[in-house]
Design a protein that fits this description.
Strand 27 and strand 28 form a beta hairpin. The protein has 5 domains: 82 residues, Immunoglobulin-like; 109 residues, Sandwich (Immunoglobulin-like); 106 residues, Immunoglobulins (Immunoglobulin-like); 179 residues; 41 residues, no CATH class. It contains 5 helices and 42 strands. The longest helix is centred in the C-terminal third of the chain and has 16 residues. The radius of gyration is 28 Å and the shape is globular. The chain is mainly beta and 549 residues long. The strands form 11 sheets. It has a 6-stranded antiparallel sheet with strand order 31-32-36-41-39-40, with no helix packed on it. Strands 33, 34, 35, 37, 38 and 42 form a 6-stranded antiparallel sheet that branches.
Length: 549
Amino acid sequence: EVIFSNGIGPIFPDLPKVVPPDALGPVVSTGWFTFVEIEKTTQATATDGFDVGVLIPFSDSNGQFRPGVTDVIWSAIDSADNVGTAEQAVKVIPLVDINKGQISAEGASVQIKVALNGDAINYPVEIPYTVSGTAIANDYTFLSSSPVTINKPVAAGELPEGLIEFEIHTDSLVEGTETVVINLGTPTNAVLRSVKQHTVQIVEGNVAPLVSLSADQIGVGRMLKVDPNGDKVVVSAVATDVNGGSLTYVWNEADNSIVNMDVDADDATITFNPSDVTTPGFYTFQVSVRDDGGASVSATLVLEVLEQTPMLTTKDSDGDGIVDYLDTISASHILQQKQSVSSAFLIQTEPGLKLSLGETAFRANNSQSMVTKEDVVDYAFSGVTGIILLDEIENIGGYFDFIVDGIPIAGDSVKIVLPQLAPLPKLPVYRKLTKSGWQDFVKDERNAIHSAIGSEGYCPPPGDAAYQPGLSEGHLCVQLTIEDGGPNDLDGLMNNSVNDPGGVSRFLASVSVISSGGGGGAGNPLLLLSVFFMLLYYRNGKSLVRKVA
């Protein structure tokens, strides 16, 4: 900036001089984001040669940082609106992610992904491991050795990861189910989470295959929204069978007929031309995969054929239902609650699993997992009538519709974390949409609900010690534990996937006091109050003493 005074010549103003704090850290990551209170833990200063008084510097950060090194910009403005800036480095050490386990069989190859929850400050990251379990050393051969090494990813935005690999030998002995347990040791340049083991179950019998569906449009790539004037669409079934047997694919027709839909020679893909689709809208594809041992599994994919060619690309690289230009998150276990918001309000599940929009959220076309009650009425269950879609209990923290795929062991329970749009109310209850209408979340030994204080838009990761059983007033984070195929899984099938449209509501009991003639008597208020709190106890699973307090 140049200031001229009386036409004499340029006078260069004295810009504020900002002295940033020293580089902060390293701080150990606490999750996808880590809060660092930089204004209190460090102190920046600013001076100016012309202005009298103290200049107060401010930063461009809200205090939430991803792992790795982040430069914070400190600024100061003087009375002439001159701005001075300086940078401060904030360093956050990443956490090591490993999922809990998987099922395999003799003769199979096993891969175990070990990933970081963000960039490391320094590379390489090395994680030693030991092997234990009931299987003996002659039962397997490791293709990789300890430690597993993680280098900086080539592509920006990808999570750093490494692999542990071994092969399971085939023998003629009947040994029952055996285990190989990978125990992670203390890493360099990273820190372990609470999950430090991965257990591989080696079973003697047949194991059902795993299958997932994806769709690509030629010229676009992976997507879920089809350009009606574009090239052909290929829907692919990716199936794996640890027993190594042959697989049979059976495709079910879409819910709206698509003419000239061709099943390819390998039966694992089908192809159609969008120009053959006479009616734009949503089309459901389903495949059932059966192995030669008789075990089968199915997968479903919903595509939308658009009415006209979109102005922007429909490419969806991670297949979560949100197009790439509105989705900057490549991690499969993270999903946006709000459209185009990737720095807060993120649903999380366990590392190694895949989160995507539920069918109602996808049909609502808002590129977010949050849905309104109007979305539920308009789009839930593809418009099937006869289901009460409007809940009589007031929603408080938002409805969210999501799917978790890739559960390694069918029937397992998975944890999902939901940041709330508002603090939990006094009488919270988690409500779920089912094929019979709305009901309370079912709690048992395989299904649970927890909450944590958190902060607006930010929550501890799944399984963190901060989560307390039940729902507590004022908390901003909810953790659901949902059993695949259990009472809280919308499809009710043990198919390595859970589906959960639901949200936190405020439980209100209608208590009517009936007066008798003559104005003297009334219903027993203590009895009615006792009934009310008994209902609350069974809904929320928390002690009455604590709730009343």
